[in-house]
Amino acid sequence: MNISEIKQMCQQKLIKADFENPELQTDLILVHVTGLKRTELYLHREQILPDKDVKNVWQCLERRVRHEPLQYIFGETDFLDCRLLLNPDVLIPRSETEFMVDMIIRSRQKFTKVLDLGTGSGAIAIALAKHFPDAEMDASDISAAALTLARKNAILNNVHINFILSDLFQNINSRYDLIISNPPYVADYLYNDLPDEIRHYEPVKALKAGVTGYEFFRNILAEAKDHLTSRAVIYFEIGYGQADQVRKIATDSGFSSIEVIKDLNGRDRIMIIG
């Protein structure tokens, strides 16, 4: 079978399964399997694929039709200028998180010691370590499996990070001038409303935050001052509609400098607390 024929069959199956952007998703699978660029898929549309590549395409497609995220199917993703290995032990990094990290990079601030609290795949810590090579970088997570993957990603991206197994600040003994976190913020009662590919594949502990959805913000801010230098700042990624309540939690925790930044879709997404 040639590329054009395979593309058509894949798209038809994705359309039948009611997927959005079937052409894009088909192209991403073909790019992953063949190593060609998207433009090359068109230029070489008459190229016959080896049987092993055809088999790999069908295997990827079958997994995708079951709503498994492409990032888990491929076992990797990109985050800013980093390549990251992925598996279901960690949350898939989102563009909103890229936006937050890019804000910090573009701020051109100087950081001596940084903590990524709840690092997951290591995406945030690794991207920051690349752009702030003189800063000492710590990254913590409650999941040993997540830290195993994050260590592999740090090696893959040639950065040094001190990884700490810790439930929030439990095993954290230092002070930092930047603490950054994308904590769980989905309230229990909203969890079942998430898309199937999130609920069925991504780690529950990285998403659910308890009854209200604010538990992690409250717990982090209750202890944060014991781990901050005098010129420190905290960056949070927050959920839709959470800005006012997180601001109140921060104020009640003794913080006075609070700024909310909208994402590229115009939604409150980043909270900067000093």
Question: How does this model look, in words?
Answer:
With 274 residues, the protein is an alpha/beta fold. It is built from 12 helices and 9 strands. Strands 5-4-3-6-7-9-8 form a 7-stranded mixed sheet, with helices on both faces. Strands 1-2 form a two-stranded antiparallel ribbon. It is elongated and about 65 Å long. The mean pLDDT is 96.
Give the SSE layout.
Blueprint: H1 3-16, H2 22-34, H3 38-43, H4 51-65, H5 70-74, E1 76-79, E2 82-85, H6 95-107, E3 113-117, H7 123-131, E4 136-141, H8 144-156, E5 162-165, E6 176-181, H9 188-191, H10 196-199, H11 215-224, E7 228-237, H12 243-252, E8 258-262, E9 268-273
Parallel strand pairs: 3-4, 3-6, 4-5, 6-7
Antiparallel strand pairs: 1-2, 7-9, 8-9
How would you spell out the order of helices and strands? HHHHHEEHEHEHEEHHHEHEE
The class by helix and strand makeup works out as alpha/beta
What level of helicity do the residues show? 40-55%
* Cα shape: elongated
**Biggest sheet details:** 7 strands, mixed
Portion in strands: 15-25%
